[in-house]
Amino acid sequence: MDPLTQGVVGAMLPQASAGRRQVVAAGILGGLAGMAPDLDVLIRSSSDPLLFLEYHRQFTHSLLFIPVGSLLCALLLYLPIGRRCGLSLQRTWLYCALGYATHGVLDTCTTYGTLLLWPFSDQRFAWNTISIIDPLFTLPLLALVVAAARSRRPLLARLALVWALAYLSLGLWQRNVAQELGQALAAQRGHQPLKLEAKPSFANILVWKVVYENDGVFYVDAVRSWPEPVIYPGSSIARLDPGRDLPWLDPASQQAFDIQRFSWFSNGYVAQDPQHPERIMDVRYSMLPNEIDPLWSIELQPDAGPLAHVDYLVHRDSGGGHLQRLWQMLRGEGDSVGESRPGGG
Q1: Which residues pair with 279 in a beta bridge?
Q2: What's the rounded mean pLDDT across residues 111-127?
């Protein structure tokens, strides 16, 4: 999630468990600790552009690391905040632990993937119930957390907790509806998906991106799950086959290994960019949910040496056209159909 949401949720849980006299300190400590795990973005390498993909949402987000990470936060925050607010080191650690513990779980509710069970598993858990940015989730929480601090009323933080759980539960239900629509869409095409995922589109849990694989091809569509199902057909693209798509690539080269790393990060949803054959893209993410245009990709160099890494590219063309079309989808308007048609490819 975005840093604001992580901080607000991190503040909410300690506030909800604190007494009236400690609700402000609990919120500050929990908010700062709730954002702390994302300091892993500082783990980067100038020579290896994919290093941050391996370490972001890794050990700092693991359930096993919560006691360690929260203790580090408590030691850093005790003198400037905890002690000044009359808290013991133990109480400071408790509020930091509650805030820190929310981070990995909240991130797992998004689509990016979180290594909750590190170091025992390298599986990236993603429950796909909420967008990385969702104002309808965050703003009510922010208002309640601020009000709880100003009024010294932990009850308001508990109401925020109820809202958070209710919204995430609603997202889970909407995700299941979107997956059912995706399965029905695949059946209409005569497909039996090898795997299928539904992911919330930007800043909402109403319009979902459905991606599934059938016979080595990814199909990408959008569905609006409520109040009545609306389908926005997309297109399709072949799954990456390095031997077929990149015949020049040395399987023993660093670039070939980087493709494997990127595929792990992308949960196998990788394809060759038809507009830029030297680029490998993550099919799961796009500005519009029924499009394949990637938000990020890696770029290979055919003339690179055996030890050269790929480049990592971010594509964020968030022009008004995209936002307008997404708004039309949210309203159930635009190029929708009752029966889907297969995309090309």
Answers
A1: 299
A2: 95
Is-contact 290 322, C-beta < 8 A?
A: no
What b/e readout covers 176-212, taking b as 16+ CB neighbours within 10 angstroms? ebbbebbbebbeebebebeebbbbbbbbbbbbbbbbb
Alpha-carbon separation of residue 164 from 143, 198, 201, 230 (angstroms): 13, 21, 19, 27
Q: Which of 72, 58, 143 is nearest to 107 (CA)?
A: 58
DSSP-assigned states of every residue in 56-93: TTSGGG-GGGHHHHHHHHHHHHIIIIITTTT--HHHHH
CB 188 within 8 A of CB 265: no
Identify residue 226 by its one-letter amino acid code: W
Mean pLDDT, the chain, rounded, equals 94
Q: How far apart are CA 193 and CA 215, in angstroms?
A: 8
Q: Give the DSSP per-residue string, 45-58.
A: -SS-TTHHHHHTTS
Please check the confidence at residue 335 and state whether its pLDDT lies above 70.
Answer: no
> What confidence tens digit (pLDDT) does each residue in 76-105 have?
999 999 999 999 999 999 999 999 999 999
More confident position, 343 or 60 = 60
- Give 320 or 186, the one with higher predicted confidence: 186
Residue 344, number of CB atoms within 10 A of its CB:
7
